[in-house]
Amino acid sequence: WVNRWTAEEGRHAFCIRDYLLVTRGVDPVELERARMETMETGYEALDKSLLNVCAYVSFQELATRISHRNTGRYTEEPIADKLLSRVAKDENLHMIFYRNIVTAALQLAPSQTMRAITEEVVDFQMPGSVIPGFSRKAVQMAKAGIYDLRIHHDDIVTPLLRQWGVWELEGLDEDGERAREELAAAVSSLDGEATRFVERREEAAAKKAARQSS
């Protein structure tokens, strides 16, 4: 499965890269240099347990599905929109696979899985964080409404937690219950941060519109 998954993710990279090169949507030299730097840096999952990995990629695959879909819409270009819609469908299938593993894990080892879910919600970071200039790119995506804290809370974290039934789950030991309490606090904090971000974005947009009309 890991080999197949990696091959499909590679296919996504190829088709998006080919589109950008053919349309000259980006500087091809800059793109290749960034690719080389990213590959040389590499990505390490460090010492994540299997449960943590499955919880993480459930969130991450759903996040990429939504960000790809929103990117396609944002382009307002039919070919890019269709291409990224197809990529998003693949990402959704990946997400369902991992989501189902976590569902089964909650039945077999509820407390350990609850702890893994909590840790991945608290420490979530996209694997693309190793890309050169990722922070600046993430801000641009957030301002454009492609992927931001509100989307992360409403469309990623909340639906998966609901699907897994974490708030109604029974049979947790002391650490499992403690993990669920930490999870509730983390989700509440994320919701607050998302609200503040949206408010600041709207204020900035209003000020920009006022400057342009004056």
Description:
The protein is mostly helical. It is built from 8 helices and no strands. Helix 1 runs antiparallel to helix 4. The protein is globular and about 55 Å long.
Write the layout of secondary structure elements.
Layout: H1 2-23, H2 28-41, H3 50-75, H4 78-108, H5 110-122, H6 134-144, H7 149-164, H8 174-213
Average pLDDT rating: 93
Share in β-strands: under 5%
The span between the termini is: 58 Å
Described by strand count, sense and barrel closure, the largest sheet is:
none
Residue windows where pLDDT falls under 50 for at least 5 positions: none
SSE class: mainly alpha
Written as H for each helix and E for each strand, in order along the chain, the element string is HHHHHHHH
Radius of gyration: 19 Å
Relative helix content: over 70%
Principal-axis shape equals globular
Total of DSSP H or I helical runs spanning 4+ residues: 8
Number of strands: 0
Q: What distinguishing features does this structure have?
A:
single chain; 214 residues; mainly alpha; 81% helix
Summarize the entry for a quick read:
This protein is 81% helix and 0% strand.
